[in-house]
């Protein structure tokens, strides 16, 4: 019997307080990164890795997300009548990307609680969790590598990235041991947002996970941790001790859209790389920088 197809889970129930007042009525996942909402980049990444079933965990006032992935016949008809075929294709693409499902988290009780809400949809199978704050450049491999490592080992796999030690307090930090593959490490422990002096390494956990279904039983009994929330990091720490956890070290291009300054940087970087925008934007950026 073949293994069940991998499903992706995208938690999108956070309040987005760092982007107020823009996120008062607009989900932070729908903030545009150039000309697409951030969450569409994440769904496209899942599809590129061979995943066609995506569950998005919603919170209150997040209906714009489900609307974005739904069809809009009147808009599509209008674009067709005007002969705006490129715009029509871009609108239809978000609808046709994948088989997308939605479930509500209810209260924002943390990432671990959001993942637990996926249990009914995922069932007793390995699944991917993808955070919308982290955008991975489509030219760089990460999720497909993680899925391959999971398929070969049967273990939970998390994405790691080396960061400046002064920044490690912003992330979960992993204690690691090397393996035969220089891009894969064995995770022996995890600490959520440690002080620089308490961090086991400068390997930061970034927002991609391939989780085995045993994580659900652990999350069911995980008590609220840092910030009074159910932390996925705490469940991963238990898995690292009992079953084993591997880390794929990512050395490619990652865009952090969870911070206002980094969000602006992400837009500039992605736009400057585009064939339709870069030729006009890059000279302007150079001229602008020289005047600062």
From TrEMBL:
InterPro entries associated with the record: GalU_uridylyltTrfase_bac/arc (IPR005771), NTP_transferase_dom (IPR005835), Nucleotide-diphossugar_trans (IPR029044)
GO BP annotations, alphabetical order: UDP-alpha-D-glucose metabolic process
Keyword Transferase found: yes
Catalytic activity annotation: alpha-D-glucose 1-phosphate + UTP + H(+) = UDP-alpha-D-glucose + diphosphate
Domain of life from the UniProt record: Bacteria
EC top class named in words: transferase
Record's keyword terms, sorted: Nucleotidyltransferase, Transferase
Residue ranges occupied by any Nucleotidyl transferase domain in the UniProt entry: 7-270
Single GO molecular function: UTP:glucose-1-phosphate uridylyltransferase activity
EC number assigned by the record: 2.7.7.9
Gene3D superfamilies xrefs: Spore Coat Polysaccharide Biosynthesis Protein SpsA, Chain A
Listed NCBIfam families: galU
Family of the protein in this entry: Belongs to the UDPGP type 2 family.
Protein name: UTP--glucose-1-phosphate uridylyltransferase
Gene encoding the protein: gtaB_2
